[in-house]
Specification:
The complex is a heterodimer of chains A (682) and B (324).
Chain A: H1 2-14, H2 23-27, H3 30-54, H4 60-65, H5 72-106, H6 118-132, H7 134-138, H8 141-160, H9 167-191, H10 197-203, H11 213-231, H12 233-239, H13 243-248, H14 253-275, H15 281-291, H16 297-323, H17 332-347, H18 371-391, E1 392-395, E2 398-401, H19 404-439, H20 446-449, H21 451-465, H22 471-495, H23 500-523, H24 528-536, H25 545-561, H26 566-571, H27 576-581, H28 586-608, H29 614-624, H30 630-654, H31 663-680
Antiparallel strand pairs in A: 1-2
Helix pairs in contact in A: 3-16, 5-11, 5-14, 5-15, 5-16, 6-8, 6-9, 6-14, 8-9, 8-14, 9-23, 9-31, 10-23, 11-14, 15-16, 17-23, 18-19, 18-30, 19-25, 19-28, 19-29, 19-30, 21-22, 21-23, 21-28, 22-23, 22-28, 25-28, 29-30, 29-31, 30-31
Chain B: H1 8-14, H2 25-29, H3 33-48, E1 62-64, H4 67-75, E2 82-83, H5 89-92, E3 103-104, H6 113-119, E4 123-126, H7 134-138, E5 143-145, H8 155-169, H9 173-194, E6 202-207, E7 212-216, H10 221-229, E8 244-248, E9 259-263, H11 270-274, H12 278-282, H13 284-287, E10 291-294, H14 303-323
Parallel strand pairs in B: 1-2, 1-4, 2-3, 4-5, 6-9, 9-10
Antiparallel strand pairs in B: 6-7, 7-8
Helix pairs in contact in B: 3-9, 8-9, 9-14, 10-14
Chain lengths: 682, 324
């Protein structure tokens, strides 16, 4: 309840600048209207300048009404330029509308097609169908997309239900689901990369058209969903109140909530099915409408649709100006994500999200009497697995144990990979444990902190700006990127005294920014993008003795410092008030823990890539096994993380021999479902 | 050819024992009969792969990580013991055929190092693209890096250099020169045959999906072929490092009398939906029915791919001329 009030007051604070102004602006969202006019003006100007390049103004009317089929310029304007414009308007409006409905129904100012994982789910479903069951697509792309979107949404709800669907937990669950969908997508690319180039262009939201069929396909579907939403404005308005208030007015909450969600998800699924993922337009439009002064839901829905349409129109025309009408493909959807992620970062300090109450302390989970015994068992399993990973693998003659003389050369390959996987898994687990105890949020993990994304960004810059960047250069660049991301995250965090929720959301935005960059790069079809993808998916392939030694030594040094943190980690889940009353300097403590997490994450990301769930999963596993105090849980989590990572490396090396599946990817594919199962059992 | 070369099972069986019998490059070079064969190799090059090799010689055990280098080796009459991504050869390279006993060592970016070590190669052929894993490969065997696609964008000149380098490596210099001569001869022949048909420029593209293509231009191998067979490339726009640009099909409307040559393999669905689109149907090359479908030819290949592309294009153009 307190949380909902906080959100509502957050809404109020967003528009508080308007409080003292005249009554007209009380009634009309002047700011939003002004913004809309400016955007539309810019879009129209860009459109004119694009059109002039393609066709002399004298022929515009002809091209619009009855294009001369002998004049290629007129054909292009009529069948490529104009439908593209129409699709950009339709999709932008649909996303803005969907974003507003999601925010209203979920009472979550950060809800949007991307932040709750719906777009990613729809996209993955289409990709899977394209690869595995193309006949499904014949029945209608929208059904496949819808199924994927609903599955993703169900997963997000299942993951965040125990926290009452609070804004932060929903968005974090949305990020996890998006990450998982992305990991499966990456697996598809790594395993069958040669003909997936088209999947990427489409996935990145290319708005290009070659006839009016998509416009005509979208129009009735989007119109139907929008009409449904229009009929529900009054009940949806009541959903914004708290449950009791709405129920006392006799509104069947559940039914309307479901109908509103279904309509919003359908809008998103249609857009994804038609043009792919258009990043962050939904979030931007809905938020800008509200900041612009749209207070009543009806106003918000109208303004968000208009702003969404204007935004996407302007962005798409801008992209066409940049590339020229026949230039290289720069997918509009990825470009909007590039612009949208900074917007999310900018919004963070300006939104009131409510206080998150720590959840770990209040759980009713088993407590093991003999933690040492549990730890010994995990350790034993780890040793057994280590033996298997080092000795048992397929070769030219099939599966075999390697002994004696045969073993020596094989060990020189296997030992660095296994030891690097071991160290990375343990470090990620420890980092995850620290993040979860620091934030009191079971969905926290180093992946979410954005440091992994920063390391990957650094690596990407090295790969594309320097020709023939070798591994040392790539490593150095990744380290610089990781620490740059840390600085950004910390500078955002400092304003809020390192309040956990800000940090996590900053991480969300950084990850989104990074994903958008990757999409743009892969969509250009540059073969170097494959190198990057290989590393992103967490391949331990190029780990040599030197880097394995480096990783292990770093891990060892960091583990030595761990006991110093244990007292704090025991206290932090009690909540900031309790910790301060114990005489601990909260700011300094949080900063130190964050630095430790950053170092652990950077060192491990270099080895296994930014996309594992170890940091999220291992602490939960340890907790489930009954290790409740910080030190035993930390040791248990580290052993479990190492176990999962070594196992993932071994499976990745052997499952499709002589090909290999990157260890990070295997860990994600194993870890995702395990994690979801763990969280559902709360 | 199966008789004179150890079968796959044989090779595996001898893996552990033949290390001491590692062949030297000089031994290969000393074989004088090679030069005699070189004189007629110009005509018999496509058959060179099929010719029996001296059963007694221990050939160099070569692992080749690039399809362009591998096809060149095959044309020189040398079969690598392993390549990366064996199963995509038929889809992208086709010719010369890759003998089935050539082992697959996984993907190009991550060849299986354990497997590689157990194959005991004498040399690994790599490209600058794979410099990131070169230190790892060097732990298995000496690595020779040969770059055909480099920032200076001269793939044809570099393919000739690569052919000479490979020929010297396996001691088949005369076959190398013969391959170069045969390629030039092929171009000259095609140029002569196409002389009456070469007035109109041609787009060479691969479909990514029904709406987008890779079009090959400056810095590409196909551009070099166009230059040598006297055909104008209709795509004069910018291209990347690898010699292609990614554009929507409407980007191919700049030249009104151009023909379109598109290469297999097609992505799923590209063929079916094309004909329904008004933009496609308004494209000049669709309206005057100047579309040619070509069998696969490796766009990132070396001399064999270059001459294969020239031959495929010549056949398609003459067939079109005869038909229309």
């Amino acid at each position: 309840m307190a949380e909902q009030q906080a959100i509502l007051s957050g809404d109020a604070s967003l528009v508080s600048g308007r409080a003292s102004s005249s009554r007209i602006s009380d009634r009309y969202p002047l700011g939003a209207i002004l913004l809309c006019v400016v955007l539309l003006g810019a879009a129209a100007a860009a459109t004119l300048s694009n059109l002039v390049v393609q066709l002399p103004p004298a022929l515009w009317l002809d091209a619009l009404a009855s294009p001369d089929i002998d004049d290629m310029r007129q054909v292009l304007v009529h069948y490529a330029f104009l439908p593209r414009l129409a699709v950009s308007l339709l999709c932008g409006a649909a996303l803005g509308l969907a974003g507003t409905v999601l925010q209203q129904v979920l009472r979550n100012p950060l809800a949007s097609p991307e932040t709750i994982g719906v777009s990613a789910g729809a996209h993955l479903a289409l990709a899977l169908a394209t690869l595995l069951a193309p006949s499904l697509l014949a029945h209608g792309r929208e059904w496949v997309a819808l199924a994927g979107a609903l599955t993703a949404l169900a997963a997000v709800f299942a993951l965040s239900r125990h926290k009452g669907l609070s804004p932060l937990s929903v968005v974090l669950a949305g990020l996890v689901v998006s990450l998982y969908a992305g990991a499966i997508g990456a697996a598809l690319v790594v395993l069958r990369h040669e003909w997936l180039a088209s999947l990427f262009i489409w996935g990145a939201g290319s708005l290009g058209q070659q006839d009016w069929s998509k416009t005509l396909w979208l129009l009735p579907r989007l119109g139907g969903a929008a009409l449904l939403i229009g009929l529900m404005v009054r009940p949806l308005t009541l959903l914004g109140l708290d449950d009791e208030g709405a129920r006392s007015l006799g509104v069947p909450l559940g039914a309307y909530r479901f109908a509103g969600l279904a309509a919003a998800v359908a809008l998103i699924a249609f857009v994804v099915a038609a043009v792919g993922v258009i990043g962050f337009v939904g979030l931007a439009a809905a938020t800008l409408a509200r900041i612009g002064g749209a207070r009543r839901l009806g106003q918000q829905l109208v303004m968000a649709s208009l702003i969404g349409a204007a935004l996407l129109w302007a962005a798409d025309q801008g992209v066409q100006i940049a590339t020229g009408p026949q230039g290289d493909l720069l997918p509009t959807g990825a470009m909007t994500a590039l612009l949208g992620a900074p917007l999310l970062l900018w919004l963070l300090p300006r939104l009131a999200l409510g206080l998150e109450t720590p959840a770990l302390g209040s759980e009713r989970l088993p407590r093991a009497r003999h933690s040492a015994l549990v730890l010994a068992v995990i350790g034993g399993v780890l040793l057994l697995l280590l033996g298997l990973a080092l000795l048992y693998a397929p070769g030219p003659h099939g599966w075999a144990f390697a002994f004696g003389d045969q073993l020596q050369p094989l060990l020189s390959w296997r030992l660095p990979r296994v030891s690097a996987a071991l160290s990375a898994g343990a470090m990620l687990a420890l980092a995850g444990l620290m993040m979860q105890r620091l934030t009191g949020n079971p969905m926290a993990s180093p992946e979410v902190l954005g440091i992994s994304a920063g390391a990957a960004l650094g690596m990407m810059v090295a790969l594309f700006s320097l020709s023939d960047a070798g591994r040392p250069v790539q490593t150095a660049a990744a380290t610089i990127g990781a620490f740059a991301a840390l600085l950004v995250t910390l500078s955002i965090g400092r304003r809020a005294a390192y309040a956990p929720e800000r940090l996590l959301l900053a991480g969300v935005a950084m990850t989104a920014l990074f994903d958008a960059l990757i999409l743009v790069l892969t969509a250009t079809g540059d073969p170097r993008a494959m190198l990057l993808l290989n590393w992103l998916t967490g391949s331990t392939y190029s780990v040599d003795t030197g880097s394995a030694f480096f990783t292990s030594t770093t891990a060892f040094c960091l583990f030595l410092a761990t006991p110093l943190f244990m007292r704090w980690l025991d206290m932090l889940p009690l909540g900031s008030a309790a910790v301060q009353s114990l005489g601990v300097n909260l700011r300094a403590t949080r900063l130190l823990v964050l630095l430790m997490v950053a170092a652990l994450t950077a060192a491990s990301t270099l080895v296994v890539g930014p996309l594992t769930f170890i940091g999220l999963m291992a602490p939960h596993l340890a907790r489930r096994l009954g290790l409740s105090r910080a030190l035993p849980q930390a040791i248990g989590a580290m052993l479990a993380g190492a176990l999962i990572m070594v196992c993932a490396d071994w499976v990745g090396r052997t499952a499709i021999f002589p090909r290999q599946i990157p260890a990070g990817l295997v860990a994600t594919l194993i870890g995702g479902p395990v994690l979801m199962w763990l969280l559902r059992r709360r | 050819m199966g008789r004179s070369r150890p079968s796959s099972a044989n090779r595996h069986a001898t893996l552990e024992t033949d290390q001491e019998a590692r062949p030297g490059r000089t031994a290969n070079r000393a074989r004088g009969w090679i030069t005699r064969r070189g004189t007629f190799a110009l005509f018999a090059l496509p058959l060179a792969v099929l010719m029996p090799r001296a059963a007694a010689a221990k050939p160099l055990r070569i692992v080749c990580l690039d399809d362009g280098l591998a096809e060149t080796l095959l044309m020189l009459g040398v079969t690598p013991i392993a390549v990366a991504d064996h199963e995509v050869w038929e889809k992208w390279v086709v010719e010369p055929p890759l003998p089935p006993e050539v082992a697959d060592i996984g993907t190009i970016l991550e060849p299986n190092l354990e497997f590689l070590q157990q194959l005991r190669p004498d040399i690994i052929l790599s490209t600058p693209y794979l410099d990131g894993i070169k230190p790892l490969l060097e732990r298995v065997a000496p690595v020779t890096t040969i770059g055909i696609y480099t920032p200076d964008g001269q793939p044809y000149r570099r393919a000739i250099e690569a052919t000479r380098q490979l020929a010297a490596l396996v001691g088949k210099e005369s076959e190398g020169e013969a391959l170069i001569a045969a390629t030039e001869a092929c171009f000259a022949d095609v140029r002569q045959r196409l002389e009456p048909l070469s007035a109109r420029p041609i787009y060479a593209v691969s479909f990514l999906d029904p709406r987008n293509v890779r079009v090959y231009g400056e810095k590409s191998l196909f551009q070099a072929v166009f230059d040598r067979i006297g055909i104008r490339n209709a795509w004069t726009g910018e291209t990347n490092y690898w010699g292609f640009a990614t554009v929507g099909i409407d980007g191919l409307a700049t030249s009104s009398d151009a023909r379109l040559a598109y290469l297999e393999p097609l992505p799923e669905g590209a063929g079916g939906t094309l004909t329904e689109s008004p933009v496609w149907n308004a494209m000049p090359f669709v309206r005057n029915r100047s579309i040619m479908r070509l069998a696969p030819a490796l766009m990132f290949g070396a001399l064999p791919s270059a001459s294969r592309f020239a031959r495929l294009l010549a056949a398609a153009l003459t067939a079109e001329h005869a038909g229309g």
